[in-house]
Amino acid sequence: MASQIYWVKPTEPQSIRTKPDISLQPSDLIPDWMDFVWVFPGALDVPKLCDALARTLQDFYHASGRLSLDDSTGRWAISFSENDGVPITVGTTALPSIMSADFNHQKHSDYVNEHPYMLNPDPMALGKQPFITLKVVTNTSTGETTLTLGWCHICGDCASMTHLMNSLSLCYQDIAATFKPSFDKYHQSDPVLDEELIPQVLPLLYYQEHAMETSIVLKSLETMLSTTSRIAVRISADQVRAIHAWVTKRTTVPRVSETDAVVGFFSTAIAAVSPAPVRRIAYILGTRSGRPVPESDFTAPSLTSMGNCMQTITTEEVTQDAAPWNFADAMRTSMNYVRDPENLRRILALNSQMLQRPGLVGDYLNLTSPDTMVYINALNKIPMLKAHFGYVDRTRFYLYGSSEHFVSMLPANPTKGISDGEWVADAGGIDVVFRLKHARVPGFWKELDEMMQAVSSK
Questions:
Q1: What is the DSSP letter of 365?
Q2: 3-state secondary structure of 262
Q3: What is the pLDDT of residues 250-261, one digit of tens each?
Q4: What are the distances in angstroms from CA 238 to CA 13, 142, 262?
Q5: Domains in the chain: ranges and CATH
Q6: CA–CA separation, 361 and 368 (whole Å)
Q7: Which residues of 383-401 are buried (b: 16+ CB within 10 A; e: fewer)?
Q8: What does the pLDDT look like over 282-308, one tens digit per residue?
Q9: pTM for the whole thing?
Q10: CA atoms lying within 13 Å on the CB side of residue 16
């Protein structure tokens, strides 16, 4: 693919140069990459996109920085220079649509700038590299345009990414962005946990308790990708409500949410084809808060904060049969427990302390899931589709990086009618993506079909 690269700086790079370094806490020093794709049915204006990105970087200035290490203190930081910029690669391709069922599991270089796994930060490798990259590709066969964002986790989690992209979309449309990012997460020291409390908290951090050496993690990832198939399921908004009604008839914990119910539903379908009993769910919890809790000495990052405001939590073991209501109860019980400010402080403290272990990787990698566990990343409430760049209800979103038993729940993409060509949005619907061992796939589809029939019959 022939391409051209545009380097974009904030509109006032000299003002960015004077910004103080953003010191990174252990929970922010995560140098692996995520790749996100937005697909539009028409073209993007590249000069306009460059101008919009420059204005967006003026607010989200941490995305224009570079990683630095202070050798005297051993502290990592995001540093700024008026010469630093963000690249936008522009090109064309004649490949199938990135959204086509027989192609969208591939990470082709025409669509995506490959970013290597960097499980440990390296100032020589990362010090000169941008934290985000963008790629605009026009498909000459379909007329679609893809906008791919390579996002280094040092810039934050999926919520941070979505805020930046939504602001970029608004700037592109010459609409004033109302969201103003803050950076308090980076400037808050990670909490500390007393040693005697570690045995109580550690079982909630399965991926820390069972951390693996980097080489073993990479080998495990390669094996997983070669032995599994990508599963993609669409659950409409009506089906989500029906699943919730069906599951909550049997739950015992109050206020089980629709997300809890869908988590329980898919955990049960996966458990049905797992050779070992599925007993626990791991999930990603957002740790931002709208207000401080006066009786707690822990202050959660604000709702506007950039950074990695997330934590992987593991539920208690489900001792009953693998059933949607039992898994949903376990999810809601865990969420209620973790939302207590003191419990959350302890969890974040232990996670930070364990991330500093030499030679080990932390739970943030999420590369392996045992047969006895289902991992959930419920992103369905994060408004990725608002980054539509003017293609309202016609923009689709794609997330790379599914893993075995790792269930990503995303906002349902709009669909285009084959006969009439009209676009139909499905607000409240969920697109579910994960991977399963090849031999388990037929059994999973059979189980899912039977469960959906049970939901419909009720």
A1: G
A2: helix
A3: 999 999 999 999
A4: 48, 31, 12
A5: 4-181 (3.30.559.10), 195-382+393-457 (3.30.559.10)
A6: 12
A7: ebbebbbebeebbbbbbbb
A8: 999 999 987 766 666 778 899 999 999
A9: 0.93
A10: 26
